[in-house]
Amino acid sequence: MAVLLAAPAAGGIQPDSAPDSRPDYYAAEPELRSCVDSAIERHPALLASRAGYQAARERVPQVTALPDPTLSVSQAVRRVETRVGSQTGGITVSQSLPWFGARDLRGRVALSEADAQRRVYQAEEREVIARIKRIFYDVAYLDAALRLLNEEHSLLGHYETLARARYSTGQGLQQAVIRLQAELTRIGDRQRQLTRQRRTLAVNLNTLCARPPETAVPPIPSLEPPAVTLDRAHLVDLGERNRQEMLAATALIEAGQDAVELAGMNFRPRFTASLALMNVAGRDPADVLGPLPPDEGKNSLSLSLGVSLPVWKESYRAGVEEAGHRLTAHRRRLEEARDAMENAVEQALIRVETIEEQLVLLDTVLVPQSEETLHATETAYETGQVGVLDLLDSERVQLDVLRMRARYVSDLLIALADLERGIGTRVPLPPRRAS
């Protein structure tokens, strides 16, 4: 009866076969998506975390299984004479049985812990994606800055040729030629600096994407900021439902609650069911006075049930207290994860709002003004109305404005990447801007 009652206790507990599908994230650039896909498939840290989750799943069938039965063989040193013959030895099979429901609780604890490990894996996956995005958008900014420098270098080269022609005909000053040549040298040095920075970032990006460090990262086209309409309450709700650290803490809380109940079962007895077969040797009728009993020489079969005596209650009480403290720790971890999520949302919203304001100012005021000023200065310089210093100042102002805009676009995309990391899922964007 004990076997029949205990055996099906954990039959319905089955671990998930694999982690959830690939994470959803914003990536309008094919190179970025390819890089992230490569990291998900081959990044060593993610592979290690995935293996940890797979290992945790295998705990479920282990903790829900009954203990191995014990087989004992005995041989009588001095035979015991009975009415039906001498007992020469026997075989005993014993099976330990936990209290009713203990196996089910152990399975639920292991299953919740495996689910927590799955969420940890997903959190590490999200962290790698966020790191890839930060570096990728920094590379995108450097590519934009290099394109601006190349344009400036080409334009100033044209004016340097024009200045030398003027100087050779006596219509211009040598100072203008020297100043333009010095500016061209400065631009060349700046190009080399940015190229070195890009090479360093490319190595870091390849490492995160689980690619050889020397893999070429193609130039990233100019990026445009996505149209975003972010509602704080909606983002916090998304974070509550998707932030992996919060889901992991919730799973551990469920495991802790079951662990407290499981620890309380130590106060209950455990059972041992045994089946014994004793070998009985038959006797010669000539050696026995009178007729032999009808069951002479038949082996004996016995069934016994043992019960443990839970008398060490202090140790059991300590086990319950330990499980209770662990449950409290998991609840505090959930509060910490919620605070981190809300902080990430608030910080990202401030950054996005600030950057969007700067982009509006640039697009509506500063960029048009700098273009108009440069165009007017170029026309005046070609006609000899202004000097080379005025031209260089106008050129530098426009370059700074355009470079500032490229930096803000990259920073906005980085802020959205951090926001995605904070809420644990894709930032809601209008469908027309989605990748």
Topology:
Layout: H1 2-6, H2 30-42, H3 44-57, H4 59-64, E1 70-82, E2 85-97, H5 102-168, H6 174-208, H7 232-242, H8 244-264, E3 271-281, E4 300-307, H9 313-382, H10 388-423
Antiparallel strand pairs: 1-2, 2-3, 3-4
Helix pairs in contact: 2-5, 3-5, 5-6, 5-8, 5-10, 7-9, 8-9, 9-10
Key features of this structure:
alpha+beta; 435 residues; 10 helices
Provide structural commentary.
The protein is of the alpha+beta class. It is 64% helix and 10% strand. The protein has helices spanning 2-6, 30-42, 44-57, 59-64, 102-168, 174-208, 232-242, 244-264, 313-382, 388-423; strands at residues 70-82, 85-97, 271-281, 300-307. A 4-stranded antiparallel sheet has the order 1-2-3-4. It is elongated and about 150 Å long. Residues 1-12 have low confidence and may be disordered.
**Which radius of gyration do the C-alpha atoms yield?**
39 Å
Q: How much of the residues is beta strand, in percent?
A: 5-15%
N- and C-termini, Cα separation: 61 Å
Tertiary shape: elongated
| Global structural class | alpha+beta
Largest sheet: number of strands, sense, barrel closure: 4 strands, antiparallel
How is this structure best summarized?
By secondary structure, the chain is α+β, with helices and mostly antiparallel strands. It has helices spanning 2-6, 30-42, 44-57, 59-64, 102-168, 174-208, 232-242, 244-264, 313-382, 388-423; strands at residues 70-82, 85-97, 271-281, 300-307.
